[in-house]
């Protein structure tokens, strides 16, 4: 399995496991997608809200200077989590709540990916993020993380 597939698999599993009453998976009704095309394919009027999109924005292997050992490459990925809602008048609040749950689940966390041969992925939140803000007929909030295999 490639590092990209392994990372996405681990992220989706981590979200799915957070399925308690106050969990991230519960907050989006289990609707976690790897592409925003879900609402474009279904048509925005039939998309189920809220939902979460997880996308790898960059795949940036760090070479010799940033490596653990000479000649060894460290895999580093920027992943964007985007919460969308257009279900009712509370959409901005829903997006803000989902964003908070993402931060609670992923900030300074690690994911064991040794079963796929990649060791541990460390999660570090990038400054910024957006929203909630209005995008077309929906509300959106985003948060970005750097995932580094250590």
Secondary-structure topology with pairs:
Blueprint: H1 3-17, H2 24-27, E1 32-33, H3 37-42, E2 51-59, E3 76-85, H4 91-106, E4 110-112, E5 120-125, E6 130-135, E7 138-149
Parallel strand pairs: 1-2
Antiparallel strand pairs: 2-3, 3-7, 4-5, 5-7, 6-7
Tell me what the structure shows.
The chain is α+β, with helices and mostly antiparallel strands and 150 residues long. It has one domain (3-65, 73-149): STM4215-like (2-Layer Sandwich), CATH 3.30.2000.20. 27% of the residues lie in helices and 32% in strands. It is built from 4 helices and 7 strands; from the N terminus they run H-H-E-H-E-E-H-E-E-E-E. A hairpin with a 7-residue loop joins strand 4 and strand 5 (120-125). The chain is globular, with a radius of gyration of 16 Å. Residues 63-68 have low confidence and may be disordered.
